[in-house]
Amino acid sequence: MNTADLGLPVDVPSTALFTDQYEYTMVQAALRAGTAGRRSVFEVFTRRLPEGRRYGVLAGTGRVLDAVENFRFDAGVLGFLRERGIVDEPTLEWLSSYRFSGDIWGYPEGEVYFPGSPVLRVEGSFAECVLLETVILSILNHDSAIAAAASRMSSAAGGRRLIEMGARRTHELSAVAASRAAYVGGFDSTSDLAAGFRYGIPTVGTSAHAFTLLHDSERDAFRAQIDSLGRGTTLLVDTYDVAEAVRTAVEIAGPGLGAVRIDSGDLLLVAHRVRQQLDELGARDTKITVTSDLDEYAIASLAAAPVDGYGVGTQLVTGSGHPTCSMVYKLVARATAPDGPLEPVAKKSLGAKTSVGGRKWAARRLDADGVATAEIVGVGPVPPELADRQLLTELVRGGRTVAREPLDTARERHIAARAALPMSAIQLSRGEPVLPTEYV
Amino acid sequence: MNTADLGLPVDVPSTALFTDQYEYTMVQAALRAGTAGRRSVFEVFTRRLPEGRRYGVLAGTGRVLDAVENFRFDAGVLGFLRERGIVDEPTLEWLSSYRFSGDIWGYPEGEVYFPGSPVLRVEGSFAECVLLETVILSILNHDSAIAAAASRMSSAAGGRRLIEMGARRTHELSAVAASRAAYVGGFDSTSDLAAGFRYGIPTVGTSAHAFTLLHDSERDAFRAQIDSLGRGTTLLVDTYDVAEAVRTAVEIAGPGLGAVRIDSGDLLLVAHRVRQQLDELGARDTKITVTSDLDEYAIASLAAAPVDGYGVGTQLVTGSGHPTCSMVYKLVARATAPDGPLEPVAKKSLGAKTSVGGRKWAARRLDADGVATAEIVGVGPVPPELADRQLLTELVRGGRTVAREPLDTARERHIAARAALPMSAIQLSRGEPVLPTEYV
């Protein structure tokens, strides 16, 4: 059995319990009613972007593929479902040989999306598809929220290095997935070793205030750090007096000191002063990293400051005000006879939670300069004359994953997709989605 | 080896990589400088509550105890640290026999806290304590954020049943910890099977709109569900027309129908209409559950509605506007000689990020009626004449966990601690912390 790509530094034998109970009770009732095998199409989409956001960033697709492969039932899982009386014996029997055998298409990871974009489409029997709802949404809603925040921050950073360092502000495993999503969204590295271990993301980190406080003096601490980590290290200079710390740092390390880190105070002002001081001390190549409660707005406000890199924590791993997306997983079509045609279905009650029935395709319309002008969504087969760039790609065929890719591919795809959006996409101010979604 | 209580339905052999890289590089530099063994005291506290919140709720302590026990180094973890060049060979050697051997005291799980409350105190050598920073903060910052939101919701619900159903809105493992924290904060059950499996939390769930849409008619769907799950089930009545669905539901199930669920529309209005209709149909004992984008304010606004239970998703697992806490893990005292006295230390730079040095105790002052009036925090030994209720309890002694408890104990403790706060604690409106923190 493969191991699940859940951001764990360990193997996960099964993802089958990352699931709301009602998925299982629905399977039981459908098995008994003889409707469990009806061919069904589920789609993942969002009715709206988080308020004020101009585009979404799809992340987590690679994790979804592993979660689907590892949605299996061993004795422990089946025993739990039996002991708790969650499903009956015929259902347990059916689950014991469960293996997703259907098809999954989706926007490739890193692609941007808009309201109504069918970012994932899962097709197979009702029972095999409905069980996957919860874990698919968990992954996409979390990872896409982080990637969207990361993308805004990486736009704002304008090419300066970005370090993800939010592990301590979110669940320890959520943090690993957050590092991964941040990387897709344009970050360069992470402080989180589990993310380095699991996904090969570059890791960084040198020291904290505790290290300075441990020693008898800041001078002792700096000397200990340089003795052990070398002159290329980053010294934290704001435990006591910044100017004195910078002087001591260069005195001990010499002008080859790698970097200094500033973690408090008025970063704009302090960065300018520290840069001037470093230059005066001859440490012209010593870099400045800032790390205090940054978000995309703070990063943008430091554009004119002599800062070389940003470390971002809380606001990144909490999605900068939008810690989740509102993606849903909806049945949009199903057959009523074994070989019958797919028929569109949709909820019809009053209120906002309606959706468009039918199996969808999607494409991005570009103008003559290659700038995106619209997200085109249609129901049914793709029109043969369609000239726009199709967005859905095949991910799983007959239960077999066909679209693995390195994380760097998703990262590069994101940067290219963002670059093809109208310029207003990267404005940080609140606005409408930068592309209209047109149903054809 | 015990397995880590990380909310996984699987064993986790090690928590050692849920750690920022700088914890390891600090250990390396301190080992080389001869300062790694200095006796040190780290404390976890927050400088402020989330804006407008009146109290915090500590959750995750049980998970911290397991994470500490399972902070170990196997060949895979050591190999990663070596190959990436994160630490040198002497450090790898030291890590290979790592086992936390110090002491941990803390507020017991479910207790309320305020700015400055020393909710956890970790004492031992610098090196063994500093390594635990990231994973301890991950757990406490995440779990306490969810528990605080859950507590407000459970106050607002006034004894009506609360179901946690946010798994699809957060990372799949964060979701399991969120279920646990929500239970501590007063929730009754969860939809998340992994939370039931891992923590024994009661699980619930029956069906979704997809089940109705799968079938040829709503009537067919209801019949299929009742045939399989019995009359005590909960039928979802808002896929098409609510009034027609309620009529069909009672017609098929009879007046013994367990419950109906409403997931859209004006819940106040719809709940009243559905209650009236159910009563007219003789289904007086059929309960009403509502589940549409609820938060503590929406729950409170339904206080006068004939609602029996609330299902809460997004706003619960994202902390209802505050998805993390701002807890920090700070070195507050250390010895400079092997058997020397602990000396208070604190960061002193300009800016808001200062802290109070020294090893602390804490107590809650109550008035004659048993109502809390202040959070008392002192440095040094507990005054022998102290009459207030001490808050720090022993959790780990010499590396051995001494304070395991069932999750229900934490839940009951929380409800009692909240009940002892001044009445204004449970106002949902924004306000100041309901207790002042007094340093003595």
UniProtKB/TrEMBL annotation, chains A, B:
Q: In which pathway does it act?
A: Cofactor biosynthesis; NAD(+) biosynthesis; nicotinate D-ribonucleotide from nicotinate: step 1/1
Record flagged with keyword Transferase: yes
Cleaved signal peptide residues:
none
Give the EC class as a word.
ligase
Keyword Acyltransferase attached: no
For this UniProt record, the keywords arranged alphabetically read as follows:
Glycosyltransferase, Ligase, Phosphoprotein, Pyridine nucleotide biosynthesis, Transferase
Assigned EC number = 6.3.4.21
| Molecular functions per Gene Ontology | glycosyltransferase activity; nicotinate phosphoribosyltransferase activity
From the UniProt record, list the reaction(s) this protein catalyses: 5-phospho-alpha-D-ribose 1-diphosphate + nicotinate + ATP + H2O = nicotinate beta-D-ribonucleotide + ADP + phosphate + diphosphate
Q: Which residues cross the membrane?
A: none
Q: What residue stretches are annotated with the Nicotinate phosphoribosyltransferase N-terminal domain?
A: 17-141
PTMs per UniProt: Transiently phosphorylated on a His residue during the reaction cycle. Phosphorylation strongly increases the affinity for substrates and increases the rate of nicotinate D-ribonucleotide production. Dephosphorylation regenerates the low-affinity form of the enzyme, leading to product release.
UniProt xrefs under PANTHER family: NICOTINATE PHOSPHORIBOSYLTRANSFERASE, NICOTINATE PHOSPHORIBOSYLTRANSFERASE PNCB1
> Which function does this protein serve?
Catalyzes the first step in the biosynthesis of NAD from nicotinic acid, the ATP-dependent synthesis of beta-nicotinate D-ribonucleotide from nicotinate and 5-phospho-D-ribose 1-phosphate.
Please give the NCBIfam families that the UniProt record associates with this protein: NAPRTase_put (TIGR01513), PRK09243.1-5 (NF006698), PRK12484.1 (NF009131)
Family from the record: Belongs to the NAPRTase family.
Protein name, as recorded = Nicotinate phosphoribosyltransferase
